[in-house]
Amino acid sequence: MRRTRAVEAWTIEPLNRFVVESGARFTLLMTPAGQVLAQHGFTRAVDVMASAALGAAIFSSTGEIARMLGEREFRALNHQGRQYGVFLGALDTDRGKLLVLVVYGSDSSLGLVQLFFDDLAEQLVVAAPVPEVRRGPILAADFERELNESLASLFGR
Amino acid sequence: MTHPYVRLLDQVTRVGGVRGVMLVVADDGLVVAESLMEGIRGGAVAALAASLTRRLAMVTKTSAVGELGFLQLQAEEGTLAIVPAPAGVLVVAVGGSDMNVGLARLEMLRVAEVVR
Amino acid sequence: MAREIQAMADLFERDPGSLVFLELGEELRRTGRLESAVRVALTGLEWHPSLAEAHDLYARILVDIGDLDRARAVWLQVLERHPRHVGALKGLGFLSFWDGDIDTALDRLETALGADPTDHTVVQALMTVRAAVETSAAHAEPAAADPVFGGFEGADDGMLLVSDRGRVLGGRLRGPDGDDVSEAAAAYLSGAAHEAERTARMLGLGAWHWMVAEAVEGNVHVSSPDPDTLLLVVRDRSVPAGRLAVVAERAGHAARSWLGDGHP
């Protein structure tokens, strides 16, 4: 069975509920920089990393278009394919801005994903902890270690 | 200016017990047009009605009775009625348990004829 | 595909700890390269001993090799840690079917369907097993009166009592050619009832009572005689929805009596 795995435990319950209710096939919860906090449905680390990077890039580039149009930003985007749709939504929490990338199939719909995304956003806002202030610069070694720890959490290694 | 579809939907909202009517894209579960009383979450009605229709269509298909023409969900405190229109659009009405379903069904079928 | 397998193999060689072994092992299995598939799966398991998907892959390869006992043992181990693992439930369902233990096969597959109602391979497997049951029952003995709806008009065609996990408990449904379509309808009914419950709850309509669907060639009535069962009544268009509701109410009463007698 596909499972939800998280680097930050406070995300698991809201994300689990979202996946069950929306019928999403794959879900990634991440920061706008592409750092993954939780995932559901992925079995390969390489897919998680690629999806997170692409999701963050899409959000960033459409943000530029929004600014050109005088919008502060787009809150949600949807790409519809023949078999699958990809939804990318943003929300603000005490943990900072977060992005949710959702892949859904023909047994779900954009309407369902949007409906339960709103619930997910509310629950994450309530559950999000205020982050501790990090002292000093992040060393490359720290980054590598954190990345490996994140992947270990996301895949249960 | 009022969208012409909204004027069309008002034929249904005039039926006793009806609290809201909308046109919904069947595949996406998104609202095309709506005429709702205050407090009804149009987006939720649209998404859930489309999903319910999809599930019931699987049952009617496997039960060998063919394409779905009308669906009614009766609950303790209200009613949801759905008519699939030919153009991939659903006519959806939500009402109280006192909703005149027979009349609402007829008006919804008329709306479905127009939006085909 | 050969090029993709080679690319995955190269990636796996460079980084044997990566999760690419899951896809590589599966592709090797599908293309019949079972020795290579076993090597890849075992290497993956050394790096990821607690990854259920890795054990599931290994068990599927063992089935293809013909080592059913070891495959069963591997899947049982997976279920000990993940009781609702769809791959393990499906695999064990298949093995039970292979052994002729139909009840266990149905039980495993119905649990798998409960864990992931969107998995069409599980629905397909359930329909295959149930069709086999129907065929063997039809050859074994003449049709007996239906235990739930015996005496009801249409008990043999147009009435179905189903568990909330999609298992037929009584009644029968036939297609236009006379084929038994009970299992297929039952498989989709639990999903529809779950959707009805959620819709009514989220729209503030309270508990759902029943649904009626009018279709081109007939009308369908769905209700829940008790919290664990669903009732489907199907009639042609000559029976109006109001009359159908009366038939469904009587059938629901019969179902509740039968369930009250201690039947599952």
Integer-rounded radius of gyration of chain B = 13 Å
Radius of gyration based on Cα positions of chain C = 23 Å
Helix and strand composition category of chain B: alpha+beta
**What letter string, H or E per element, gives the SSE order of chain C?**
HHHHHHHHEEHEEEH
Q: What does the average pLDDT of chain C come to?
A: 84
Largest sheet of chain C: 5 strands, antiparallel
Identify the overall geometry of chain B.
globular
> What is the beta-strand fraction of chain B?
25-35%
Largest interface: B-C, 32 and 40 residues
Low-confidence stretches of chain B: none
What gap, in angstroms, lies between the N and C termini of chain C? 48 Å
What is the terminal-to-terminal distance of chain B?
23 Å
Strand order of the largest sheet of chain B: 2-1-5-4-3
- Summed over residues and divided by their number, the pLDDT of chain B gives a mean of 92
Number of helices of chain C: 10
Q: Approximately how much helix is present in the residues of chain B?
A: 25-40%
Low-confidence stretches of chain C: none
Reading side by side through the largest sheet of chain C, how are the strands ordered?
2-1-5-4-3
Number of helices of chain B: 3
Q: What percentage of the residues of chain C does DSSP assign to strands (E)?
A: 5-15%
SSE layout and pairings?
The complex is a heterotrimer of chains A (157), B (116) and C (264).
Chain A: E1 4-6, H1 12-22, E2 26-30, E3 36-40, H2 45-68, E4 76-80, E5 85-93, E6 96-104, H3 110-127, H4 140-155
Antiparallel strand pairs in A: 1-3, 2-3, 2-6, 4-5, 5-6
Chain B: H1 4-13, E1 18-25, E2 30-36, H2 42-62, E3 68-75, E4 78-85, E5 89-95, H3 101-114
Antiparallel strand pairs in B: 1-2, 1-5, 3-4, 4-5
Helix pairs in contact in B: 1-3
Chain C: H1 2-14, H2 20-30, H3 34-47, H4 52-65, H5 68-81, H6 86-99, H7 102-115, H8 120-140, E1 159-163, E2 168-172, H9 182-202, E3 208-215, E4 219-226, E5 229-235, H10 241-260
